[in-house]
């Protein structure tokens, strides 16, 4: 599949639909997919036909996060890397973003929701941010945004232990706007997107930018700092062990490292 199939993009009724479509790899995001998402988000900003962006995955999986094979074979090396381009594009988007989450949301599958304005999840969805478990560090501005929305200790539990958590918990903690019956998520998210598209667009954009005004500069700086640390961590023995363990389908052993 080429990137146009892996990220399906369609504009209609004022909505840019960006659908992650790599079901055989649990919608893991590879370089081409990050680039396609970044390009779609950037183009949406200057396209008058787009008033709202709707990001979704499949019925079973939103996304299992960064493609772990890419971390080994083609790790990000700087601000021009597709993942950084995506993070900057989603965090700086002027138009409202709605997310529809079914099934698994792992890694950037969770942290990208922090940049969406409305996020709808199926009650059976499952969330996880296993950055530390992989010997890495959190990304996408999550070390700034998570404590902001839920406090340090709740954020620390999610980021330091990196366990999977339920849709109900994601909603209680403020990562998700509302839970929906599984199967209705995309319909409900689209309905909200259509509602947003019917709102006065300039007023929506202004309200969104004012909502983010007091932390926008700090967010950009945090995304860069986390990105720098993340790229260093990818070269660490801990990350090498975690990534090899995933490829070999075994549990990682971190006892050798202090
Ligand atoms: N990167 C690359 N490949 C991935 C992937 C990822 N993030 N997530 C899943 N896959 C691949 C698997 O390697 C497998 O490929 P294969 O069929 O060629 O062997 C396929 O998708 C199905 O995954 P599998 O692990 O068999 O499914 P599962 O239902 O048992 O588990 C997950 C699903 C998402 C829990 C598990 O795949 C996982 O933990 N993935 C890694 C998630 C992760 O750490 N993301 C990065 C966070 S920074």
Please, could you describe this protein's structure?
The protein is an alpha/beta fold and 258 residues long. It has a domain at 3-181: 2-enoyl-CoA Hydratase, Chain A, domain 1 (Alpha-Beta Complex). The protein has twelve helices and ten strands. A six-stranded mixed sheet has the order 1-2-3-5-7-10, sandwiched between helices. Strands 4-6-8-9 form a four-stranded mixed sheet. Strand 1 and strand 2 (15-20) form a beta hairpin. Helix 2 (31-46) runs parallel beside helix 4 (82-92), helix 4 packs antiparallel against helix 11 (216-233) and helix 6 packs across helix 11 (216-233). It starts with a helix and ends in an 11-residue tail after the last helix. The model has no long low-confidence stretch (mean pLDDT 97). The structure holds coenzyme A (COA).
CATH architecture annotation of the domain at 3-181 = Alpha-Beta Complex
The radius of gyration over CA amounts to 17 Å
Q: Which word captures the global form?
A: globular
Protein structure class: alpha/beta
CATH fold category name of the domain at 3-181 = 2-enoyl-CoA Hydratase, Chain A, domain 1
What are the segments in which pLDDT stays under 50 over at least 5 consecutive residues?
none
Order of helices and strands: HEEHEEHHEEHEEHHEHEHHHH
| CATH C-level name of the domain at 3-181 | Alpha Beta
């Amino acid at each position: 599949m080429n990137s146009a199939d892996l990220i399906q993009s369609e504009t209609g009724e004022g909505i840019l639909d960006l659908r992650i479509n790599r079901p055989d790899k649990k919608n893991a995001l590879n370089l081409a997919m990050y680039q396609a998402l970044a390009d779609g988000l950037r183009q949406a900003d200057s396209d008058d036909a787009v008033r709202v962006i709707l990001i979704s995955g499949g019925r079973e999986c939103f996304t299992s996060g960064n493609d772990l094979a890419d971390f080994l074979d083609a790790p990000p090396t700087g601000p021009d890397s597709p993942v950084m381009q995506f993070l900057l594009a989603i965090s700086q988007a002027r138009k409202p973003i709605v997310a529809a989450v079914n099934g698994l949301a792992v890694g950037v599958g969770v942290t990208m929701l922090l940049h969406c304005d409305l996020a709808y999840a199926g009650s059976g969805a499952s969330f996880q941010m296993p950055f530390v478990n992989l010997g890495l560090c959190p990304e996408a501005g999550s070390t700034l945004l998570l404590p902001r929305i839920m406090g340090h200790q709740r954020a620390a539990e999610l980021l330091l232990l990196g366990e999977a958590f339920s849709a109900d918990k994601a909603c209680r903690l403020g990562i998700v706007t509302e839970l929906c019956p599984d199967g209705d998520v995309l319909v409900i998210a689209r309905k909200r997107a259509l509602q947003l598209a019917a709102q006065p667009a300039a007023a929506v954009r202004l309200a969104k930018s004012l909502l983010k005004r007091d932390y926008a500069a700090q967010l950009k700086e945090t995304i860069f700092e986390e990105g720098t640390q993340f790229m260093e961590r990818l070269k660490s023995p801990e990350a090498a062990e975690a990534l090899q363990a995933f490829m070999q389908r075994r549990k990682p052993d971190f006892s050798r490292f202090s």
